[in-house]
Fold this protein.
Amino acid sequence: MDPEKFSMRPAALEPPAGGTAEKRLFQGIPGVETAGDRLFVSHYANDIAGEGPGNYAVLLASGDGGKSWEEILHVRPPDPGSRVYDPVLWRDPEGRLWLFWAQCRSEKLWDCFDGRAGVWASVCKNPDAEKLRWTAPRRLADGVMMNKPEVLKDGSWILPVALWSNYPEKLAPEQLPLARSNLLVTKDRGKTFTLTVGPDIPGRSFDEHAAVQKKDGSLWVLARTKYGIGESFSRDGGKTWSASRDSGLGGPGSRFALRRLKSGRLCLVNHQSIHFLPGETPPENQVREKLSVWLSDDDGKSWYGRLLLDARKNVSYPDIAEGSDGFIYEVHDRERLVHGQILLSRFTEKDIASGELVTPGAFRLMTVSSLKKEV
């Protein structure tokens, strides 16, 4: 069979069978979502030590606030020369739980992109049900998505989907103009999608961009860059984009999380105190440490709070979700090849503003899953 056609086959959604987290050699890159009294966490993993062939996505659920967890679903690649990676969880305005993931050919370790990849999705219409049912996997677009969708004021959804520019030699000539921090738009609640070409942010690295709509209606796209986080704006729904610039938010060239809360404030999870100017050459192997969370009352012009979540090194890839209980839930990973910890924290806007946990029931760094019991 033609490998290119084979790579377009859907992954298998199946109950976990055989093996446990303690026996894996790699796991990380988590996501989190809430549904009533349930918490869901996703990540991807491998039975060999790294990113590449055989990567698969894992979905876990908790019904007791995160004290105990059960693996409930694995998303397995369609053949040994493929990988499933970068899962994203999102509960849409209708209450449906979406599980997104990326899929591509990958025949050796650290071969992470085949020039096309693809964002896939499966939907659980009732995540509160005792038995969860998932729709058949559906391919939405070329590219990779690493942050949650945003719901616009007109009811449209935008999905931050990127066709990576890191490997131009793998892209076909007609793909080069599309190798940007794009937006996938649906105006009919996920029935159909159209591509909006996003900004071309210099220095970006794997994009991992987030998109929010500002209160004036403009779109704000922020992307992971080698110097921290770059940004661009559109005032015409994505038809044109402003000249890209450094957002000033810093970071070690890693994924960050940005969401608008029910209060209207923006919430940002990022690494502290690492900032490089565009054009500077950051050192190799930048340390991912001091993962913290901030709030903004003025649509991102200024930030306050700085609640430190994890001061250790090699902590990364945060995601957040807001529960109906008033808490914000955050997950990130630590030491993917050594400990493979998936860690959960729970806090409120009051905790962020205070810079410390002051709310009863708030906590930091509860272990969801780990490669090794002793960490």
